[in-house]
Amino acid sequence: MSEAALDVRAVWKYFGDFPALRAVNLNVARGECLAMLGRNGAGKTTLLKILAGLSDISQGTVSVFGSQGNTTDARRKTGVLGHGIGIYDELTARENLELFGKIYQLDRPAHAAMAWLERVDLKHVADARAREFSRGMRQRLAVARAFIHEPLLLLLDEPFTALDDRSIALLQRLLAERLAAGATVVMSTHQLREAMELATHWALLVRGKLVHKGERSPEIISDPTWVYRNYGEDS
Amino acid sequence: MGHVFTIAWKDLRSELRTKESINAAAAFSMVILVLFSFVLDISGDARDFGGGLLWLVFAFAGALVLNRSFAREQSNDCLDALVASPLPGWALFLGKAIANFALLGIVELVALPVFGILFNANWLRFPAWTLLTCALATWGMTVIGTMFSALTVNLRLRELMLPVLVYPMLIPVLMAAMQLTTALLVGEGITAEDWIWVKLLIGFDIIFTSLSLALIDFILVS
């Protein structure tokens, strides 16, 4: 249990000749909640995709729970919520969650699906197709999809974007529960206030380089421009 | 194997609810068969060209089904959710291939009786051989189509690229299927000379299924 949840060493990622990530070193301890900050195009999504096993690296090494690369065991312990919600529009809410419950080999996927639909307040529309849902409902269903297997590592790409107040509160509560259970969270975000309520640490990416990683400081919450003034391109 | 059937069930259920590709494929095959029944002289022995016509129809209609296979995963980035899960790449591929095989089978089941009526062809003379030929050739088309559907899923001109890449690869399968189907329609049955085509279909299916299963992880992670 001593090894880090994530260990990224000297990772480079090229898209053609363009280096999207440049020699990124990042160590995330178990139980840590890391808010990954950076302007658009800084490389946050690219790094999260690499951590989730959705993209390969050009150079360097990535370890998840001590295993090099993205093993099946690591993927079983990881929950991913990216820009896309990962929900099938033609399936019902219940079928969507049952599908992922089966993929994550839960003992009782149907039971888990209903339990999570209740938790995200979608039980009353369990048998409605996802395409009929509002944006907020789809986002809540996506959260349930990412959390259904109670992951030990959560990789969230701008999870608070486009959420209403109720959904933000729900996501914060679910994240707090996972953190209390010892899970590790890495989230990219532009919404510092929401993210910093949970984050224990923050990191800043500037043009593909990790320029800072440290513990949460009160200045970030009180002044959203503080990060960029002190560590970013504006510093 | 549980994962394979989970994916196949998901794809079949999605498709049978929307019917977005199966309706198009079935309608397309009907139109082609009806048009050819006007163009070709069916007062002569239509059985001679029946095998060729039938498999061209299946190949073109099949492309409509196969095009949607991985494209279906693009909306809402569902493919990312699957790739990030513990679902093995081979299970994802095999599940999709089984679903595509079933969908192509439905299209063939709809087209065959229409072909029989329009071209006065008895395709039920050797039912076991007809079934075997259809199954082997359809699996060959399915494997190649599903593989290239995964390869082209992120291309802007996906609908154009898939047929361009798939049809040349399908030449051996289509040749074998056309030869065998023609032999069955003519009424000779499968003779010793035709066995080479049966072996070709079996070999093709084994080689390309193995190759696809080996390469799919590499294809899915960009």
Molecular structure report:
The complex is a heterodimer of chains A (235) and B (222). Chain A is of the alpha/beta class and 235 residues long. Chain A has a domain at 6-77 and 151-230: Rossmann fold, CATH 3.40.50.300. Chain A has helices spanning 44-51, 72-76, 93-103, 109-119, 135-147, 165-180, 192-196, 218-222, 226-230; strands spanning 6-15, 18-28, 33-37, 59-64, 67-68, 78-81, 153-157, 184-188, 201-206, 209-215. In chain A, strand 1 and strand 2 form a beta hairpin. Chain B is mostly helical and 222 residues long. Chain B is globular. Chain B has one domain (2-220). Chain B contains 8 helices and no strands. At the A-B interface, helix 2 and helix 3 of A face helix 1 and helix 4 of B.
Keywords:
heterodimer, A: 235 residues, alpha/beta, Rossmann fold, 6-stranded mixed beta sheet, 3-stranded antiparallel beta sheet, 34% helix, globular, B: 222 residues, mainly alpha, 8 helices
Strand order of the largest sheet of chain A: 6-7-8-3-9-10
Global mean pLDDT of chain A: 88
Rounded to the nearest angstrom, the radius of gyration of chain A is: 18 Å
Low-confidence stretches of chain B: none
| Largest interface, counted by CB within 8 Å of the partner chain's CB | A-B, 31 and 23 residues
Highest CATH level, the class of the domain at 6-77 and 151-230 in chain A: Alpha Beta
Low-confidence stretches of chain A: none
Enumerate how many helices of chain A there are, as a single number: 9
The major pleated sheet of chain B works out as: none
Reported CATH architecture of the domain at 6-77 and 151-230 in chain A: 3-Layer(aba) Sandwich
SSE arrangement of chain B, N to C: HHHHHHHH
Order of helices and strands of chain A: EEEHEEHEHHHEHEHEEHH
Q: Which percent bin holds the helix content of chain A?
A: 25-40%
What is the distance, rounded to the nearest whole angstrom, between the alpha carbons of the first and last residues of chain B? 25 Å
